Amino acid sequence: MTFSFEILLLILLLVTAAGAILVKDLMSAVLLLGSYSFFLALVWAWLGAVDVAFVEAVVGAGLATVLFLFTLFETAPKDGRLRRPPPPMAALIALPLLGVLLLYAAKDLSEFGDPNSPPSVHISPTYLERSFQDTHTPNVVTAVLMDYRSLDTMIETIVIFTAGIACALLLRGKSS
Amino acid sequence: MIQSHDSIIVQSLGRFLIPVVQLFGLYVLFFGQYGPGGGFVGGVILGTSMVLPILVFGLGGTRSRLAKRALHGDGIGMLIYAGVGGLCLIGGGEFLNYAHLDIPGLETASRRSAGILLTQIGVAVDVAVTAVSIVLSLASEEVIEEPQNE
Questions:
Q1: Is the Cβ pair A161, B130 closer than 8 Å?
Q2: Torsion of CA B54, B56, B57, B58, to 10 degrees
Q3: What pTM did the predictor assign?
Q4: Over 80: is that where the pLDDT of A176 sits?
Q5: What whole-number distance in Å separates Cα of residue B110 and Cα of residue B92?
Q6: Is B40 touching A (CB cutoff 8 A)?
Q7: Ordered alpha helix ranges (H), A83-149
Q8: Quick one: average pLDDT of A106-123?
Q9: Chain A 65-104, CB below 8 Å of chain B: which residues?
Q10: Is residue B77 part of a domain?
Q11: Less Cβ around it within 10 Å: N or C end of chain A?
Q12: Is the pLDDT of residue A141 over 60?
């Protein structure tokens, strides 16, 4: 029974993604993108990545939708072109080749949940066993993110800060 | 200028929901060490709890004052995060090695826990302020220009 639920979720993911690209009304496209994020959050939760699901639901389905809507209010809510321009020939040839290449390379990745894959052999067990003694933090994800990989998180915070500054520089003060 | 929404349903619901959203954001922020959540998600929820009053009550509303005030705090989150790293340096360790935070009365693991909490607050402040700032930039609002009486 759970199997059909997973298939249904993935089909909905594909349908909403295709709809967001193909639909003419940009407002509907934004809402479809929001629902896509929500289904993606469900997929993450189903895979057991609750923290990622939380971020996807809050940022993808919540904040990003609001930002897109604000952009639409300032610009045109309709895709005004009568027909979309056809994609260039080079892209039609190169992109499927790239896809085949990526699928070929994906064979080298370890299987999902494989206990003998390199990350499951030493990195994950070390974090799982030692993070509570090291940091007194029951949530391993938080311990890895904020302590073991703290510098990465700091650079990510700088990226967000830079995004805010760039938006303010580009968009504010234009009317005056 | 964003005007206030004239529907009574939206206004009453906003009046009820905004404190709940704020409380939930703080919960997610401070319980990120015990459950799913953390600084990033908590910051986004706190940011939306500051954007919501602007959408419901307009930019001139009393409840939107917090968002306008928050705009002045751009960069404070980064300061908290990097400041914790600097305190670790002062304590004699590496940058962002929370075990060297000089908090008396705490063992090493609890110091690391405190360091995680402090940096999470830094991330949350940064993300919340950035969310409000981007939304107000997209709405092309002039908010910083408050009349200065000299």
A1: yes
A2: 50
A3: 0.86
A4: no
A5: 17
A6: yes
A7: 89-106, 118, 124-135, 140-143
A8: 83
A9: 66-67, 70-71, 73-74
A10: yes
A11: N
A12: yes
Domain match, A74 and A7 both: yes
Determine whether the interchain pair B119/A146 forms a contact, defined as Cβ–Cβ distance below 8 Å: yes
The token duo for B85 is 């790293």
Asked if A167's CB is within 8 angstroms of B40's CB, the reply is: no
Q: What is the mean pLDDT of residues B115-144?
A: 86
Enclosing domain of residue B127? 8-138
Instruction: Taking each helix axis as running N to C, give the angle between helix B76-90 and helix A150-171, from 0 to 180 degrees, rounded to the nearest 10.
Output: 150
Here the CATH number for the domain that contains residue A22 is: 1.20.120.1200
- Number of folded domains that form chain B: 1
pLDDT, position A103: 93
Q: Does A127 touch chain B (CB under 8 A)?
A: no
Q: What is the mean pLDDT of residues A70-76?
A: 82
Written as one letter, the residue type at B31 is F
Q: What percent of chain B has pLDDT over 90?
A: 41
Which sign, positive or negative, has the C-alpha torsion B121, A164, B62, B144? positive
Identify whether residues A73 and A6 lie together within a single domain: yes
Tell me: the pLDDT tens digits for A8-66? 999 999 999 999 988 888 889 999 999 999 999 999 998 888 999 999 999 988 899 98
Total domains in the fold of chain A? 2
Does A139 map to a domain? yes
Whether the pLDDT of residue A143 is over 70: the answer is yes
Residue among A51, A54, A163 minimizing CB distance to B130: A163
A123 in the same domain as A56: no
How is residue A16 written in tokens? 């909403």
